[in-house]
Amino acid sequence: MDYPTQDMVIIDEMPDQWRKDNQLPEQWRKDNQLPVVDKVFKTKEFIGELLGTFILTVVTKGAVLSLAVGISNGEITVSSAHLPSCLASGLAVMMAILVTGGASGAQTNPAVSITMWAAGKLKFSDLPAYLTGQYLGAGFGAIFILFNFRESLGGVGPENIASFPDLAENMGHLVFDQFLATFLLLSCILAVDDQKHSPPALLVGLSVAGIGLAIGRNAGASMNPALDFMPRLVAAAWDSIEKRELQNFPFTKGGYFWLVPLLVPYLGGLAALLVYKFGIIRLRGPSSEPGEVVFTDQPRKVENGQTNLAFVPDIQKSRHFDGSLCHRPATIY
C-alpha cells in the first residue's frame, strides 16, 4: 500500500482503516511529522488569532473614533452614535470570522478561548498561541487605528478607544453588566458551535450587535479582555509619547473600572458554559427528529461519500459538550 505524503490532502487520502483504528503506519507518521515549533507553539492558530483580532480592533475602534469625532464636532449626539457603534462591532466580528475562521476558528477573544478550553474543545497547550495572538492583534490594531486618526485625536483624545462607564457608575453594577454581556455572548457562541446554526459568521456578528444595543450604554459591553486592555494600554503609551510625560488617564478614568472588562468576561463565559451544558444539552438529550441535533461518534458524510472534516487545522479529535466525539476543533463560524 502506498503511504500518503505531505503533497497529498492528508485527511482525504488517509485510508479508512487507519482512521477507524486511529493507528497510522510509522512511515506515514515520519512523512507527515509536524515541525518542532508547531508542536510547542501553534503557529497557524497564532497567526489566525493575530490577524483576526487585528481586524476586529481596527474596525471596532475605527468606528468608535469616527463617531467620537462626530460627537465632538456637534454633528451627532451620543444617543444617535450608539446604533452605528454596535453595528460596527458586529460587522467587525463577522469580518474577522470570514478572514481567519479557517485558520484558528477566529475566536479573537480570550474569554471565548478559555471557555472552549474548559469545554474540552481546546487543548491547554493551544492556549498560549490563541491568547498571545489575541492580545498582540488587539495591540497592533490599536496602534494602526490611532495612527490613521492621528490628525483628529486633538479634539477627542486617544483614550476613546477604550471603554468607560456611561449610564452605570456603581462598581457592583458594572461588574454585573460585564458578566451579563459576556454570558449572553458565550451562550450564543456555544449554541452556534454546538447546534451548527448557519451562517455562523453572520449570526455571531448579529449577536454581538444585539448585546451592544441592549446593554452597551452602561459601560461599552466590551466582553473581550484583549479588545479592551490592549487599546487602553496603547492609548496611554500614545498620550505619554505625545505629551512627553507619563500619562495614565485611560487607566484612572472611572477608577478601577479597567479591571472589570479585563477579568469579568472569563467568569461570564464559564457561567454560560455551565448553563448551556446542564440547562440545554442535559435536558435536550439525543434526538432523531428532523432538524434536531443528533450526537454521534461518526463524522458527517457529504457528496461522493467523502468525509467532511472541513476547517480542521490538524488531525485531532475533540469532544462535544455531552462527551461524544467531535471531528473538528472549536470554532465560532
Query: How far apart, in Å, are the first and last alpha carbons?
Result: 37 Å
What series of H and E elements makes up the topology? HHHHHHHHHHHHHHEE
Q: What spatial form do the alpha-carbon principal axes imply?
A: globular
Radius of gyration: 22 Å
By secondary-structure content and strand pairing, the structural class works out as mainly alpha
**Order of strands side by side in the largest beta sheet?**
1-2
Share of residues in strands: under 5%
Mean pLDDT: 81
Please count the helical segments.
Answer: 14
- Largest β-sheet summary: 2 strands, antiparallel
Low-confidence stretches: 1-13, 288-317, 327-333
- Please provide the count of β strands: 2
Q: Helical percent range? A: 55-70%
What's the layout of helices and strands?
Blueprint: H1 10-13, H2 16-21, H3 26-31, H4 36-40, H5 43-72, H6 78-104, H7 110-118, H8 127-148, H9 153-156, H10 171-195, H11 200-219, H12 225-243, H13 249-252, H14 259-284, E1 318-319, E2 325-326
Helix pairs in contact: 5-6, 5-8, 6-11, 7-8, 7-14, 8-12, 10-11, 10-14, 12-14
What does this structure look like?
The structure is a single chain. The protein has 333 residues and is mainly alpha-helical. The protein has 14 helices and two strands; from the N terminus they run H-H-H-H-H-H-H-H-H-H-H-H-H-H-E-E. It has helices at residues 10-13, 16-21, 26-31, 36-40, 43-72, 78-104, 110-118, 127-148, 153-156, 171-195, 200-219, 225-243, 249-252, 259-284, and strands at residues 318-319, 325-326. A two-stranded antiparallel sheet has the order 1-2. A hairpin with a 5-residue loop joins strand 1 (318-319) and strand 2 (325-326). Helix 5 (43-72) runs antiparallel to helix 6 (78-104), helix 7 (110-118) runs parallel beside helix 14 (259-284) and helix 10 runs antiparallel to helix 11 (200-219). It is globular.
